[in-house]
Structure formats: structure tokens, C-alpha cells
Write a structure and sequence with these properties.
Layout: E1 5-14, E2 25-29, E3 34-40, E4 43-45, E5 50-54, E6 67-76, E7 84-87
Antiparallel strand pairs: 1-6, 2-5, 2-7, 3-6, 4-5
């Protein structure tokens, strides 16, 4: 019998460029068997596989060195529920 796990992740987004940005996105590649069930401070595109999180209205504009945070909850039955992330 596979055991289901609940995952909760909070991810900081830091803007390191010298000019402000008007938006950000982070892609998270989830392992097979894992899914996103809830998101805060971002909009999720999809819930399995590679999920793209995009800023919401109140946290998209970041000045140099500013940080915002988003998070998600999920579950899955796969072992090694370690996602990989890329940002732009």
C-alpha cells in the first residue's frame, strides 16, 4: 500500500537585477505521483508535472534586492518528493 504524504513549501523570490521587474514566475518540476493542492501569493498553472507559479497583483513589482514569497501545498505517494525549480 502506498503512503500519501502532504507537502508544504514556501519559496522566496529575490530580484537581483539593478532595474525593477514587473513580474516573475517560477517553474517547479514535481516528481511523478506528486500534485499541488493549494497555492498562496501566486497563481499556479497546472497541478502535476511542471507547475508554473506566477506573481499575483500585489507582489509582482520588485525593486533591486527586494524579496517576496509564495507557497504551495501538495501531496503524493512517490518517494523522494524533492522538486526542482527554475525562475525568470
Amino acid at each position: 500500500m502506498a503512503h500519501s504524504r502532504w507537502v508544504r513549501a514556501a519559496a522566496p523570490v529575490t530580484h537581483r537585477a539593478s532595474l525593477p521587474t514587473n513580474g516573475w514566475n517560477v517553474s517547479v518540476a514535481l516528481p511523478g505521483g506528486a500534485s499541488v493542492t493549494n497555492t498562496w501569493s501566486a497563481t499556479a498553472s497546472g497541478s502535476t508535472g511542471t507547475v508554473r507559479f506566477t506573481n499575483v497583483d500585489y507582489n509582482g513589482r520588485l525593486g533591486a534586492g527586494q524579496v517576496t514569497e509564495f507557497g504551495f501545498q501538495g501531496n503524493g505517494s512517490a518517494s523522494g518528493l524533492t522538486p526542482t525549480c527554475t525562475a525568470s
